[in-house]
């Protein structure tokens, strides 16, 4: 009750004060309130688990917001008040995240624009809070809030994923990806009572991210590196049940295929770096489809350098990263395939000596 009242006060403060410093301070207090609530829920769970009267797993009561129904009561729910406050911060920067305003005149005017330093800090702070919300919930409660959290995090990623000249990720994109990783890694994704629902919602979230980058005019300016990194976050932060669904996995592989064919050396370089990690994923159901689909293209791209040598440092870095990926493939390949891969690297290395 006290926590909810305090969050409501902070919400009103953010609505009435335009000072970024005051708003950031308010968000820090929100984070501390949420952390205290997390510790309280953890302690209640530990106490119940060691209680002799609740030794049977199925008799343990559900702790956290939402209890065993998943219901969140406005005015009484700490989680609901936290989400309201985060939505307030994010919609101020991205009005298009408000479904009621979508399509209104002028709403798209700020899309794909970089934020100021203060705006970046506010958005990043709100995303950190959002990623921590599931830890305050019961399994059923986490299912109730997950769609909202994913909508907001992916929405910020989509609205700020612009290409920067040096190939770096915008601060808000990096914050979105970190928040996404935190959500995907939540223990609630594996909890018995919420695992099935989480898997379905995370599959939908991955499909949404892939849809954002489909080439349909308005979305063409979005940054491929942000997309590839988001896919990789899903691969390493969720269970294989999410990323090995055939239709989703095929679309993910297609995005990497397009990136390998990109004329932008920054995109190619990052693509190789991410594939290097994916190829070495110990779960074969995850890594092998990428290897089988992309290995031949990677080798052929390296062989092309025998005819056309790199003209810039960036292009040379791409070739070096490609060699590193093929070297990793050699270590993973069956004996009968290693000779061909060795030959590709040997020819490229010899060519590099002439550059």
From TrEMBL:
<dbReference type="GO" id="GO:0016020">
    <property type="term" value="C:membrane"/>
</dbReference>
<dbReference type="GO" id="GO:0006897">
    <property type="term" value="P:endocytosis"/>
</dbReference>
<protein>
    <submittedName>
        <fullName>Uncharacterized protein</fullName>
    </submittedName>
</protein>
<dbReference type="InterPro" id="IPR016024">
    <property type="entry name" value="ARM-type_fold"/>
</dbReference>
<dbReference type="GO" id="GO:0030139">
    <property type="term" value="C:endocytic vesicle"/>
</dbReference>
<dbReference type="GO" id="GO:0005829">
    <property type="term" value="C:cytosol"/>
</dbReference>
<dbReference type="Pfam" id="PF25468">
    <property type="entry name" value="HEAT_HEATR5A"/>
</dbReference>
<feature type="region of interest" description="Disordered">
    <location>
        <begin position="45"/>
        <end position="68"/>
    </location>
</feature>
<dbReference type="InterPro" id="IPR040108">
    <property type="entry name" value="Laa1/Sip1/HEATR5"/>
</dbReference>
<dbReference type="GO" id="GO:0005794">
    <property type="term" value="C:Golgi apparatus"/>
</dbReference>
<dbReference type="GO" id="GO:0008104">
    <property type="term" value="P:intracellular protein localization"/>
</dbReference>
<dbReference type="GO" id="GO:0042147">
    <property type="term" value="P:retrograde transport, endosome to Golgi"/>
</dbReference>
């Amino acid at each position: 009750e006290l926590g909810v009242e305090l969050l409501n006060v902070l919400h009103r403060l953010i609505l009435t004060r335009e000072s970024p410093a005051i708003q950031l301070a308010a968000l820090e207090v929100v984070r501390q309130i949420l952390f205290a609530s997390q510790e309280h829920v953890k302690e209640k769970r530990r106490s119940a688990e060691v209680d002799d009267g609740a030794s049977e797993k199925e008799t343990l009561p559900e702790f956290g917001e939402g209890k065993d129904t998943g219901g969140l009561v406005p005015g009484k729910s700490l989680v609901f008040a936290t989400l309201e406050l985060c939505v307030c911060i994010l919609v101020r920067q991205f009005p298009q995240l408000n479904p009621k305003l979508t399509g209104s005149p002028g709403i798209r005017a700020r899309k794909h624009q970089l934020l100021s330093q203060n705006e970046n800090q506010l958005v990043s702070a709100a995303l950190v809070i959002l990623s921590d919300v599931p830890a305050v919930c019961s399994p059923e409660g986490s299912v109730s809030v997950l769609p909202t959290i994913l909508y907001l995090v992916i929405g910020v990623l989509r609205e700020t994923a612009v290409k920067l000249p040096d190939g770096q990720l915008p601060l808000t994109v990096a914050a979105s990806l970190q928040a996404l990783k935190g959500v995907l890694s939540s223990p609630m994704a594996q909890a018995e009572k919420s695992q099935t629902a989480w898997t379905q919602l995370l599959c939908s979230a991955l499909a949404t991210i892939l849809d954002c980058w489909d080439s349909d005019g308005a979305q063409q300016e979005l940054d491929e590196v942000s997309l590839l990194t988001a896919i990789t976050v899903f691969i390493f932060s969720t269970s294989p049940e999410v990323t090995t669904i055939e239709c989703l996995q095929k679309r993910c592989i297609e995005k990497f295929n397009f990136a390998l064919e990109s004329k932008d050396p920054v995109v190619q370089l990052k693509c190789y770096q991410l594939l290097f990690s994916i190829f070495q994923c110990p779960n074969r159901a995850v890594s092998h489809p990428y290897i089988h689909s992309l290995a031949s293209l990677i080798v052929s791209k390296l062989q092309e350098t025998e005819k056309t040598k790199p003209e810039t440092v960036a292009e040379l870095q791409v070739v070096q990263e490609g060699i590193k990926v093929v070297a990793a493939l050699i270590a993973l390949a069956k004996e009968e395939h290693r000779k061909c891969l060795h030959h590709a690297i040997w020819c490229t290395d010899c060519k590099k000596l002439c550059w």
